[in-house]
Design a protein that fits this description.
The chain has 173 residues and is mainly alpha-helical. It has 6 helices and no strands. It has one domain. It is elongated.
Length: 173
């Protein structure tokens, strides 16, 4: 049995892969897309379109999270409705955190000079120069990224497990 290398022995680029790799982008995209899909899935299931709701939710989890969801078992209507309702709190929290995370990093971090173009930054964090203010706000954005990305990862992992259990073949999935 081989073990994956620990973070201490992994190359530096691999250590940062979780932060800026495609895995992170897919998780973030899922966190933002799952809420509208979940909100649409509840009424779809209730009006008899459980198959459509199931395909939407399953497809999103398989494509973006790589969830190993098997073909649906019996009771697809009940399972789809249960997933739609039980996943909503996680979806709401994940979408809110992801939206705040990327808005903070992009608007107040990377694009700070554009957001404050023409304004007096002498009293801003890192002022009195635009370069200092940009550096200070960029650092806060990166700190936000480092704190919230693992939380988004945890929430989307919970959503993935819920999807595997309810949208797949059941407890043995």
């Amino acid at each position: 049995m081989t073990l994956a290398p620990s973070l201490s022995t992994a190359p530096r680029s691999a250590k940062l892969g979780w932060l800026l790799g495609s895995y992170t982008w897919r998780r973030s995209a899922y966190a933002l897309a799952a809420l509208p899909v979940g909100l649409v899935s509840v009424p779809l299931t209730l009006v008899g379109a459980a198959g459509t709701a199931h395909r939407l939710q399953r497809g999103l989890a398989v494509r973006l999270l790589g969830a190993p969801i098997g073909e649906p078992g019996r009771g697809r209507l009940v399972r789809t409705l249960a997933h739609s309702v039980l996943a909503l709190p996680l979806q709401l929290l994940a979408a809110g955190l992801t939206g705040v995370l990327w808005a903070d990093v992009l608007v107040r971090g990377v694009c700070y000079p554009l957001a404050e173009w023409g304004n007096d930054v002498s009293h801003a964090w890192g002022g009195p120069t635009m370069g200092g203010a940009w550096a200070a706000h960029f650092a806060v954005g990166m700190l936000t990224l480092a704190i919230l990305l693992p939380v988004v990862r945890l929430l989307t992992t919970g959503q993935s497990r819920l999807a595997v259990r309810l949208l797949g073949t059941g407890p043995e999935a």
